[in-house]
Amino acid sequence: MQDIIRSTKELNHEFAVQLCLAAINHANTFPANIAVVVLTPAGIELSAVRMNQAPLHAVNIARKKAYTAASFHVPSQSWQDKLKHKPDTMSALLREDNFTYLGGGIPVVIENEIVAAIGVSGATEAQDIECAEMAITTLLNSLFLSK
């Protein structure tokens, strides 16, 4: 039976909320107003936070970034290079509701397994990526320092 049933791990909601808060804390250093969405590896929302002054579209864009990272197990920005010379594939993927090649969506990997994906939107693309990366680093540091 074990060969046909796969057990998956996912981040719990408390750490998902901590990821959002860590990204927002980092955005405050720019300062920037962002939205952050954390999804399970299956694309189910664990947490979402929009700073008061973040663009209204930021939550949906952050969700797309996280969904893309969860779906393909790579940062959303990696699709920019992958699709650079494939306009037909890019056009087809951009018609998908939950796909984006904008940077700021990153899989969260713990013990070589994707346990979540984070998406950040509302600042510049580079700042969105930085906020997502800083949130993951903060989470991983808190996990390994507490052991």
UniProtKB/TrEMBL annotation:
InterPro entries cross-referenced by the UniProt entry: GlcG_carb_metab_protein (IPR052517), PduO/GlcC-like (IPR005624), PduO/GlcC-like_sf (IPR038084)
Gene3D superfamilies, sorted: Haem-degrading domain (3.30.450.150)
Protein name: Uncharacterized protein GlcG (DUF336 family)
Organism of provenance: Marinomonas rhizomae
